């Protein structure tokens, strides 16, 4: 039996955030405390992909799967935090330095956003890249993809692979714009060579 659809996470950015207001964002490694938010986000992704009939993940199953190994040795999840106020500092980590950024709003916001990446294998396999609709076209997808590419270069990996749905034309155009090759037979995206190296100085 499929799990009960989780409710949406509470907003972390006020809906009334004015145009022109600075928006603070940070990409960091997920922790077990993020599991409830990850669970809700995965359900929203299943809804977007018309796969809710296959959604069976629970918070318990995510906890037991995602945090058994050190980051970048098995499943690894990145979380994107967004706030109208500066984000508090994080404790130091030996394997990843959080990426902080500030953007200026050019369009009104309706809903908060969190993102995840799952990385695995010899080279990185990106399981999902999902940005809620209200946060698209604001540079967050580019930010997240750049973080994965930069980490691949740092670890001397030769490529980043992922899959995109063939009907998701906007995503395909975005990935091609980022320099990825879309392999039409499998719809597998690959960032390698000069396009991957370009992120090492990002």
From TrEMBL:
Ranges where the N-acetyltransferase domain occurs: 25-202
Keyword set, alphabetical order: Acyltransferase, Transferase
InterPro entries for the chain: Acyl_CoA_acyltransferase, Diverse_Substrate_AcTransf, GNAT_dom
Domain of life: Eukaryota
SUPFAM superfamilies referenced in this protein's UniProt entry, alphabetically: Acyl-CoA N-acyltransferases (Nat)
Alphabetized GO MF terms: N-acetyltransferase activity
Pfam family, one: Acetyltransf_1
Protein name: Acetyltransferase NATA1-like
Provenance organism: Tripterygium wilfordii (Thunder God vine)
């Amino acid at each position: 039996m499929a799990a009960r659809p989780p409710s949406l996470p509470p907003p972390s950015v006020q809906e009334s955030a004015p145009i022109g207001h600075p928006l603070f964002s940070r990409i960091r490694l997920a922790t077990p405390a993020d599991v409830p938010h990850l669970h809700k986000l995965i359900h929203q992704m299943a809804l977007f992909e018309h796969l809710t009939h296959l959604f069976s993940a629970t918070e318990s199953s995510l906890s037991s799967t995602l945090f058994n190994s050190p980051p970048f040795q098995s499943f690894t999840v990145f979380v994107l935090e967004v706030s109208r106020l500066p984000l508090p500092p994080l404790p130091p980590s030996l394997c990843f330095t959080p990426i902080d950024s500030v953007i200026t709003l050019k369009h009104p916001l309706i809903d908060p956003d969190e993102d995840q990446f799952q990385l695995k294998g010899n080279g990185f396999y990106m399981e999902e890249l999902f940005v809620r609709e209200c946060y698209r076209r604001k540079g967050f997808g580019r930010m997240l993809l750049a973080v994965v590419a930069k980490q691949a270069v740092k670890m001397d990996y030769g490529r980043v692979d992922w899959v995109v749905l063939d009907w998701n034309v906007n995503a395909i155009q975005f990935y091609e714009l980022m320099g990825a090759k879309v392999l039409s037979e499998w719809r597998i995206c690959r960032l390698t060579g000069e396009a991957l190296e370009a992120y090492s100085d990002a």
